[in-house]
């Protein structure tokens, strides 16, 4: 935070505290021109308003709140660039990236600092406590863990904490996010492949029109052919024309008969799994404008042991 912004923050916080205290004092001392207990001249539904002082318990709580705020701001960060007399911080702010956090030098700075780096301490404590447990699970195969109820429960919790935001709490995904329980896998559904996908992430990309010389007026015919591959209702005559468009080069990724290619992450067009929707409009939009999607790599975020457990949970969903 630059100096000017820091001064503005300090001024605003101080103004709020001083203003709150002044308002409280004014409310306690001001008698509104009336004696205590005297009628204020207002009657509502037979209830008369009288001039009574603020409840003492309420006034004391307000004073305590202001004093607590002052003490907190003195002890902990909160006033612009002032770090507080305890020099406390919730995390090691010297670590600016995951890559840097791996460096021993950055870890040494955090450990040797006089700061009370709460987050680092809690993470170290958690690693000491749970690290051996995760390591023991990681020593077992994914297939073995998928049959272990305790391992599946831990894997499910990790999944809900880190993966459910995209794939849903039931792992059924949504538009643009793969369903993990339908048996359809872009890159393959073996234990090793699932683990690799989570560890290193995936980048999926289909260029507009597949990067092929496909005219806009040819797209409807191509859509009908794509729908025919999965046995859906389609216009047979248009599908025949669409097959010719498909053979311009779509087969290079999706296969000669639309079976897909796990090596490329190219989806099968013969099943009923549609990542971006299977309506005619959605399929046409995918062909015309292309699609791109990215799944982040979790290796550096969660570590290999936790990813191993998540992989076993995901694998178990299709058993």
Portion of residues in beta strands equals 5-15%
Q: Specify the CATH architecture of the domain at 175-303.
A: Orthogonal Bundle
CA-based gyration radius: 32 Å
Physical arrangement of strands within the biggest beta sheet: 1-2
**SS elements, strand count:** 6
Shape: elongated
Order of helices and strands: HEEHEHHEHHHHHEHHHHEHH
Number of helices: 15
Would you kindly provide a written description of the structure presented here, covering whatever features stand out?
The chain has helices at residues 3-29, 56-75, 98-101, 104-112, 118-138, 142-146, 149-162, 164-167, 191-200, 219-229, 236-246, 251-254, 280-289, 299-302, 304-316; strands spanning 39-44, 47-50, 88-89, 116-117, 202-206, 291-295. The longest helix has 27 residues, at 3-29. Among the domains are: 3-88, no CATH class; 175-303, Cytochrome Bc1 Complex, Chain D, domain 2 (Orthogonal Bundle). With 319 residues, the chain is mainly alpha-helical. α10 crosses α13 (280-289). β1 and β2 form a beta hairpin. The model has no long low-confidence stretch (mean pLDDT 89). The chain has a two-stranded antiparallel sheet. The two termini are 53 Å apart. It is elongated and about 95 Å long.
Task: Name the features.
two-stranded antiparallel sheet, 319 residues, mainly alpha, two-stranded parallel sheet, 8% strand, Cytochrome Bc1 Complex, Chain D, domain 2
Helix-strand layout with pairing:
Elements: H1 3-29, E1 39-44, E2 47-50, H2 56-75, E3 88-89, H3 98-101, H4 104-112, E4 116-117, H5 118-138, H6 142-146, H7 149-162, H8 164-167, H9 191-200, E5 202-206, H10 219-229, H11 236-246, H12 251-254, H13 280-289, E6 291-295, H14 299-302, H15 304-316
Parallel strand pairs: 3-4
Antiparallel strand pairs: 1-2, 5-6
Subunit structure: Component of the cbb3-type cytochrome c oxidase.
Subcellular location: Cell inner membrane
Main location: membrane
């Amino acid at each position: 935070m630059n100096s000017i912004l820091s001064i503005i923050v300090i001024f605003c916080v101080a103004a709020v505290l001083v203003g709150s205290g002044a308002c409280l004092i004014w409310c306690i001392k001001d008698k509104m021109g009336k004696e205590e207990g005297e009628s204020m001249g207002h009657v509502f539904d037979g209830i008369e308003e009288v001039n009574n002082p603020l409840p003492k318990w309420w006034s004391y709580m307000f004073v305590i709140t202001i004093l607590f705020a002052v003490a907190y701001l003195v002890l902990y960060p909160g006033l612009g660039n002032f770090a507080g007399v305890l020099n406390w911080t919730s995390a090691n702010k010297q670590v600016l990236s995951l890559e840097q956090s791996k460096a021993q030098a950055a870890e040494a700075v955090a450990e040797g600092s006089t700061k009370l780096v709460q987050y680092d301490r809690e993470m170290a404590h958690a690693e000491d406590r749970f690290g051996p447990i995760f390591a023991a699970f990681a020593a077992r195969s994914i297939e073995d863990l998928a049959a272990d109820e305790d391992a599946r429960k831990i894997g499910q919790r990790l999944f809900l904490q880190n993966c459910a935001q995209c794939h849903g709490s039931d792992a059924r995904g949504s538009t643009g996010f793969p369903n993990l329980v339908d048996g359809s896998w872009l890159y393959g559904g073996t234990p090793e492949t699932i683990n690799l996908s989570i560890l290193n992430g995936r980048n999926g990309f289909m260029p507009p029109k597949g990067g092929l010389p496909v005219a806009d007026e040819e797209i409807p015919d191509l859509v009908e052919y794509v729908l025919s591959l999965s046995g859906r209702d389609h216009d047979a005559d248009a599908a025949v024309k669409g097959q010719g468009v498909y053979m311009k080069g779509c087969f290079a990724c999706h296969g000669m008969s639309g079976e897909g290619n796990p090596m490329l992450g190219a989806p099968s067009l013969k099943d009923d799994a549609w990542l971006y929707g299977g309506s005619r409009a959605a399929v046409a939009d995918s062909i015309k404008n292309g699609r791109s999607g990215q799944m982040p790599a979790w290796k550096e975020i969660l570590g290999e042991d936790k990813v191993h457990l998540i992989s076993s949970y995901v694998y178990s969903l299709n058993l």
